[in-house]
Specification:
mainly beta; Immunoglobulin-like; six-stranded mixed beta sheet; four-stranded mixed beta sheet
């Protein structure tokens, strides 16, 4: 089987597995009333779990594995299971998932209402590989918490999954975290 056909087969199989095994990302506790910007993202003087935007204004999330769990983290952040994005009415947040691991694949799936948009269309599932990160998605300007499922398949190993969260905060006092 040609490598490109093999990856298509792997991605289709992974997508089917995820749709069956993780039909809704609410396997964990989900977003709760405790998942607020103040509780999980800190203050302007003490930010935590914040995603630092790259030069293009995108929050790059690294998909990987730690302790037999999938991870979806901003580069350099600890694995809290929460990513904080800043959005303003003039500058909505943008996010992209990628993996640095060679020959690995992953699927991101939002249940119910997905916050991801691409060219104005709502996107519920994103698929990527080590050679092809996901598209850059826009996250709407809203104060909200969204839980999603991530399945990560390293080469030659069983796939692992997790249910991380994205908190989107708006307002002038939040601070974009842009370097």
């Amino acid at each position: 089987m040609k490598p490109s056909r093999l990856w298509k087969f792997v991605l289709l199989t992974l997508t089917a597995w995820l749709a069956f095994a993780v039909a809704s990302p609410a396997q964990g506790i989900g977003c709760t009333v405790a998942d607020t910007w103040a509780n999980d993202c800190g203050s302007g003087s003490n930010p935590i779990n914040r995603c630092t935007l790259n030069a293009d204004g995108v929050c790059p999330l690294q998909v990987g594995e730690s302790n037999n769990m999938a991870t979806s983290l901003p580069s350099g952040n600890s694995n809290t299971g929460i990513v904080c994005l800043v959005s303003t009415s003039s500058t909505p947040a943008h996010v992209q998932w990628e993996t640095p691991a060679a020959n690995a694949g992953f699927v991101i799936q939002f249940g119910g209402s997905s916050p991801l948009q691409y060219n104005g269309n709502q996107i519920g599932v994103a698929v990527g590989t080590s050679n092809a990160p996901t598209l850059v998605y826009t996250v709407p300007t809203t104060n909200n918490c969204f839980e999603y499922a991530v399945a990560y398949c390293p080469p030659g190993q069983a796939c692992v999954s997790a249910d991380p969260k994205i908190l989107v905060g708006i307002g002038p006092g939040i601070g974009a975290g842009k370097k």
